[in-house]
């Protein structure tokens, strides 16, 4: 049986050179993200904005969206966002945060039940008051920051500051691009989105660390090789692994997008986008960053003296 | 590496087999599991029984998650009123003359005592009221007190509730409230409600599988402070004007003096009035309550009595005859449902302060079941796709990676069952995601083997170098992922935390299966097949 090979052996792609394309592209995209962030803004869900979300399913037949919308707007809680989703006659309604503090939010649910309970099953009801939503924003932001600082410290100890910086640049790049995905698609940004972003942080670092691990090893082995060549070699020798792992992850996520159900679809889509971005950035963004950081300086050379004899014998 | 001792093989297999065995109860229905737990002979140790399964989160089994916050201002207000009464009592006992009267501020009370000798007498008496705050911990008493007594210029004496005092009061009130809420939720007859404290002033109530979350919220949110007071003849003096529950909501003058409170009730049951067949609540007082109620009804024959719930007059019947038996009934504008609720509330007791619902998340059982179904299908398809791809790429080695993958998924479920971790909808997504990433360790090892073999190493030494060299990379890449996952776990709540648990366990099990199981299977394969080259 002939086995699958996505990447041929001994590739010699000049990947680092591609930064002349990848950097302007990533920079332009980041600016676009910034502009969108300031103009359009993220489509915050009720976790962060406060308010009420109701998902209901029609008991018989297709839901009449226009009728639901006018009935929901008639409840006296401002304009409701009404959307049909899925294939089973499911409708979601979102009400903005009501003035009057916590008890006012509860009134929304009471009124909506009165209006719709006869024709619809209530599948999901969520209300988040103003205080809780404020705290959730804090906790979410803190989580992302803590994760990045933690990883920076670990990489600093395990590798070198230069490599740690390269990895973090790549990770920040991936976060920005993922935020761009939220901005462009206007997918709802909620607590699960924070989970998705942190997972992407993890995956991004995973991808970068695999390449950098090789860079560190090659630095010890080839003391005279030029840095661009060395970085290209790092990427090329891990390219096959990168391709295979990305493929299996994408396969799993595609299964999740298609079969995982509407409740998880958004999360799966973001992850799918993130995995592709991470694969791109590990090769085309974080590794070329090392060109600008003097990676031969400092302890890397000294570490080479202490490297095990086996590593030298092989060179 | 390839010389695996038989003993080692057996240990690895046993550990993995046992680990996967822990996942087995998840295949049984909950009924079967309880049946096994009950029916098993007692000589079998409990941990060997397949009874522990993964707990499903509220988003999967359906249910309500309600976060309540105690009203801090309400508690401080009652503390201030207590201070005012204490101050007044001390002033009276010691016959201290003061100017103007007792002033009430947001955080305390103040009074002007012009005479210095009086002040010297009063101040220590007031300081006696301060109590130390906090338990005796490792750091000793905290040195804070519940109130502070300040002497201002011009003979002004201030007594304030301290921050620590207010916190202490909130803490105690939340403890009491948890007890009350537990009794209320239990009365609804639901299975396994979870009631826990969150932060200083919040209580999280999680009730799975409830059909009517509206009723839960009505029962949780009500303070249920019941008082029996006399309706006053005039509107001056110690009289509160309270709204009536009757249509129109007219104001009723009610005396401030409370005859009996809800705390003196020992039972309350919903019933129907035999004459009017209206829904009512029958109640019984304890001895103290019965005495007081008997005395008051004897003295006030022919006058209306106000039954006050949370500062609203439910009804004000005229006392026809002295009620000395210690039991009575509350009638009013009730429906069958509202008397049921009222009876539950009266039996469970009143909350120590007002509580508001600050967050609610309810998932209907239908949505949860759909999510589980979709999750199962996605997991299955993802597994099949990844296995096909791995076998297509690596042949025999892909098959070995697939075995490691299946063991990895079983281990996640096994560990989650033992730890009593909660599986949530994002958790299912986490499982599917780790199915994609779990093979990464294997891929790293295999690709390294290829490289080493291309550099001219013999098969055995390539296999060995593959494991050795890839190991550091596996550790580094997984530790960085782990840091992100731990950050997620420590800051996330509910469903997101469920995802973090899966993510963390997935990272651990994938490393373990890659460095033990894969390695062993490759060693066994080598001994069995005696290959000359890598099969991929």
Q: Provide the β-strand percentage band of chain B.
A: 15-25%
- How is the largest sheet of chain A built, in terms of strand order? 3-4-2-5
Tell me the helix content of chain A: 55-70%
Task: Give the distance, in angstroms, between the N- and C-terminal Cα atoms of chain A.
Answer: 34 Å
Biggest sheet statistics of chain B: 5 strands, antiparallel
Question: What fraction, in percent, of the residue positions of chain B are helical?
Answer: 40-55%
The total strand number of chain B stands at: 18
- Helix vs. strand class of chain B: alpha+beta
- Oligomerization status of the protein chains: heterodimer
User: What string, H for helix and E for strand, traces the elements of chain A in order?
Assistant: HEHEHEEHEHHEHHHHH
The CATH superfamily of the largest domain in chain A bears the name Multidrug efflux transporter AcrB transmembrane domain
Give the CATH level 1 class of the largest domain in chain A. Mainly Alpha
How many DSSP helices of chain A? 11
The overall number of domains of chain A is 2
Radius of gyration of chain B: 34 Å
- Rg of chain A, Cα atoms, Å: 25 Å
């Amino acid at each position: 049986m002939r086995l699958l090979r996505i990447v041929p052996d001994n590739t010699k792609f000049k990947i680092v050179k591609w930064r002349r394309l990848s950097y302007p592209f990533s920079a332009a995209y980041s600016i676009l993200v910034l502009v969108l962030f300031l103009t359009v803004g993220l489509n915050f869900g009720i976790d962060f904005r406060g308010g009420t979300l109701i998902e209901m399913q029609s008991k018989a037949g297709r839901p009449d969206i226009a009728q639901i919308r006018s009935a929901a707007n008639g409840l006296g809680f401002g304009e409701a966002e009404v959307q049909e989703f899925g294939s089973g006659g499911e409708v979601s309604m979102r009400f903005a945060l009501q003035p009057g503090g916590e008890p006012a939010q509860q009134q929304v649910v009471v009124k909506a039940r009165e209006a719709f309970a006869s024709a619809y099953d209530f599948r999901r009801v969520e209300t988040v008051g103003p205080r809780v939503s404020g705290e959730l924003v804090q906790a979410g932001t803190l989580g992302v920051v803590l994760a990045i600082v933690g990883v920076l410290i670990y990489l600093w100890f395990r590798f070198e500051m230069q490599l740690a910086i390269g990895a973090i640049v790549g990770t920040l790049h991936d976060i920005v691009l993922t935020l761009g995905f939220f901005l462009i698609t206007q997918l709802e940004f909620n607590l699960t989105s924070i989970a998705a972003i942190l997972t992407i942080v993890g995956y991004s670092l995973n991808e970068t660390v695999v390449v950098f691990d090789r860079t560190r090893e090659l630095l010890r082995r080839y003391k005279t090789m030029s840095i661009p060549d060395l970085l290209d070699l790092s990427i090329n020798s891990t390219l096959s692994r990168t391709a295979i792992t990305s493929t299996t992850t994408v396969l799993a996520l595609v299964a999740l997008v298609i079969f995982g159900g509407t409740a998880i679809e958004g999360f799966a889509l973001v992850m799918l986008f993130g995995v592709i971005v991470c694969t791109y950035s590990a090769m085309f963004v974080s590794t070329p960053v090392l060109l600008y950081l003097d990676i031969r300086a400092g302890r890397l050379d000294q570490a080479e003296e202490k490297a095990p004899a086996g590593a030298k014998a092989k060179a | 590496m390839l010389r695996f001792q038989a003993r080692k093989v057996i240990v690895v297999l046993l550990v993995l087999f046992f680990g996967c065995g822990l996942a087995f109860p998840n295949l049984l229905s909950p009924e079967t599991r309880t049946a096994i737990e009950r029916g098993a002979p007692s000589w079998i140790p409990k941990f060997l029984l397949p009874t522990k399964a993964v707990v499903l989160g509220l988003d999967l089994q359906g249910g309500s998650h309600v976060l309540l916050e105690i009203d801090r201002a309400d508690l401080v207000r009652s503390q201030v009123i207590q201070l005012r009464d204490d101050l007044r009592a001390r002033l009276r006992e010691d016959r201290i003359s003061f100017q103007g009267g007792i002033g009430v501020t947001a955080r305390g009370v103040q009074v002007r005592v012009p005479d210095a000798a009086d002040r010297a007498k009063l101040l220590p008496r007031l300081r006696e009221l301060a109590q130390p705050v906090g338990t005796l911990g490792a750091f000793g008493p905290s040195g804070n007190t519940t109130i502070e007594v300040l002497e201002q210029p011009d003979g002004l004496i201030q007594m304030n509730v301290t921050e620590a005092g207010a916190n202490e009061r909130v803490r105690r009130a939340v403890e009491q409230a948890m007890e009350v809420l537990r009794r209320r939720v239990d009365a609804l007859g639901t299975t396994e409600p979870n009631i826990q404290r969150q932060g200083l002033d919040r209580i999280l109530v999680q009730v799975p599988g409830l059909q009517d979350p509206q009723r839960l919220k009505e029962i949780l949110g009500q303070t249920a402070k019941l008082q029996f007071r006399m309706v006053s003849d005039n509107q001056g003096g110690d009289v509160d004007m309270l709204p009536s529950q009757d249509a129109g909501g007219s104001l009723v003058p009610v005396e401030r003096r409370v005859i009996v409170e809800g705390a003196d009730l020992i039972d309350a049951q919903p019933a129907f009035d035999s004459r009017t067949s209206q829904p009512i609540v029958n109640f019984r007082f304890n001895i103290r309550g019965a005495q007081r109620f008997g005395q008051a009804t004897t003295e006030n024959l022919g006058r209306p009595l106000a039954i006050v719930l949370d500062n609203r007059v439910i009804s004000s019947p005229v006392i026809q005859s002295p009620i000395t038996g210690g039991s009575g009934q509350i009638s009013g504008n009730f429906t069958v449902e509202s008397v049921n609720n009222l009876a539950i509330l009266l039996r469970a007791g009143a909350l120590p302060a007002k509580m508001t619902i600050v967050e609610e998340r309810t998932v209907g059982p239908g949505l949860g079941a759909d999510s589980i179904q979709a999750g199962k299908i996605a997991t299955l398809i993802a597994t099949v796709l990844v296995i096909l791809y791995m076998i297509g790429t690596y042949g025999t080695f892909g098959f070995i990676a697939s075995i490691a993958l299946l063991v990895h998924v079983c281990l996640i479920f096994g560990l989650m069952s033992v730890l009593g971790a909660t599986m949530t909808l994002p958790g299912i997504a986490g499982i599917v995601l780790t199915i994609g990433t779990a093979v990464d360790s294997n891929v790293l090892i295999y690709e390294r083997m290829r490289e080493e073999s291309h550099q001219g190493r013999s098969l055995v030494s390539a296999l060995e170098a593959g494991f050795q060299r890839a190991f550091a990379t596996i550790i580094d890449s997984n530790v960085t992922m782990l840091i992100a996952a731990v950050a997620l776990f420590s800051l996330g709540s509910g469903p997101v935390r469920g995802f973090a648990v899966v993510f963390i366990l997935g990272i651990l099990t994938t490393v373990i299966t890659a460095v033990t199981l894969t390695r062993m299977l490759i060693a066994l394969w080598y001994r069995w097949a005696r290959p000359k080259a890598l099969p991929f």
